[in-house]
Amino acid sequence: MRRSRKLLLALFALLLPLQAQAVLEIKITGGTEGALPVAVVPFAWEGAGAELPVAVGGVVADDLRRSGRFDPLPEGEMLARPHTAQAVNYQNWRALGTEHLVVGKARPMGPDAYNVQFQLLDVFRQAQLTGHSLTVRKGELRSAAHRIADIVYETILGERGAFDTRIAYVTERRPSKDERRFMLQVADTDGHNPHTILESKQPLMSPAWSPDTRSLAYVSFENDQAEIYVQELATGHRRKLAAFDGLNGAPAWSPDGRHLALTLSKDGNPEIYLLEVDTGNLRRLTSNRAIDTEPAWLPDGRGLVFTSDRSGSPQIYRLSLTGDRPRRITFEGSYNAGADVSPDGEHVAMVHGQGGRYRVAVMNLETGALRVLTDGRLDESPSFAPNGSMILYAAEAGGQSVLSAVSVEGRARQRLSLQAGDVRDPAWSPFRN
Amino acid sequence: MNSKMRFLSVAAMAALISACSAPGEKKPGGGTDEKIFGEQGEQAAGEQAGAQAETAGTDAEAQALAERGEMAMSPLDDPESVLSNRTIYFDYDSSKVKEEYLDILTAHGEYLAEHPEQAVRIEGHTDERGSREYNIALGDRRAQAVKRLIMFHGVSTDQITTVSYGEERPVAMGHDEAAWSENRRVELIYAGH
After folding, report:
1. Which residues of A touch B175 (CB under 8 A)?
2. ipTM of the modeled complex
3. Final residue of a domain: which of B10, B44, B76?
4. What mean pLDDT, rounded, does chain B reach?
């Protein structure tokens, strides 16, 4: 599996032009209350040159900080910089209040690879919790750092980390008054390594990851109407999947990757259909004179939630593929739309409009309890991290569209923005195994 | 706005032309326009339309000019005509056409019924609030509502295409009600006008 991923990344690098692409800037905007004190010592470099090509320790610390669950010790406050467990003076770290310590080093392995070793230590028990040695290709050091952050996160918290995953999003720039440039991009979760998947003068929308993370479905207006394409990231190969009369929108992959739920208005009204990806067979799922759109799968693949304004205002409904009548599930607020289901199937995130503000709320599917998580005015497009810990969404800040992330319990917040231009329509990838 | 409309309509005409011509016949510029639309005398190409607006008067005159093989003005190019109203506005989260726009849509419906060769593209748009895909669906509903009112006058479905851009193509860039009310709209785009 790992090998095929490496190959995939190599192909990726070959096929995509290496243009200078703006990296999303991350700014942490929310507090770290209750976050666990941890220290990640800068990793040692045992190769030629003064230092590591990528500050691995710094990337790990940044990942942990962004999760809101950890409060890494600033480098400047460290009394020593050990690189192995043997060199650690636990008293020093205990005095600083550090509970967990990460130490490590990297060295070249031949001309094309690096070996990275690290240990996660429990300061109070003075014991190693885990230790790993990773060998990665040149250019994958950041990915190695994200994997280390994932291991640290999972070892301490008992749940899988999602740092070594990716995000897709759409950027828009206006080079002149009448000119617009849209780009569909994929980047690491910290905004680094952005790759442009597609560039267009017409709007691009609604990227959706295939469950195997190899393809994106998205909406493009390149032919003057909303059409759905599927594009393989490694090869760039793209296929037009839906271009019926009217709108073709809101693609959502079924958990087994065999179907896309989508919205078509070919029969005169926006309705939700199921499209079998290999055969193109269509099955209509909704039948109502109102708007039915924005399908999102429940993780068992047997049902969906979607937006409908059949009650007079947009609300979230749930339907099962067995054909039961859709059931309304949101009752708070005048506007609930654009749902995303948490990976464990227990929660639904949505755009929640009330009192003229549009914010992201999370509802417990079992109890119906709804919690508003964000504090913007025009928040939209919530997308769960594959471990369910955070929600990425689009917000307005200073007249610009930016991405924001919030932890599900609402503690940690951060903003990802472009220096010039809008970023929106985020979609967090599934795990890549 | 005007230059955008013109750009769009020229682009739409170009699309129409390429759709109509056999591969060998495709010619750049006005020659092709003449070939396809010339008989009707209605499709004054791009820049010339404005100049003609000052000299051409009534439909009859236009007809006469057309018979002499000269460029003539279509009522679609007459800024005084009710047909020059091509944008109608909607309330928040509504696809109901307001009464004040019914006369305008009647005029377009009647014009299109009388000119079965004329095509129109109906574009639905929304403001930026709320969910993007829901807004695409809402824009679609707005375009469909306008289409139904126009078709009521005996217009063929072949003459009408609809598209929704949702919130993706705002005309006003602000983030307040002044901008939003301008963006909640349907635009009628006539090929060549």
Report:
1. 377-378, 396, 399
2. 0.91
3. B76
4. 76
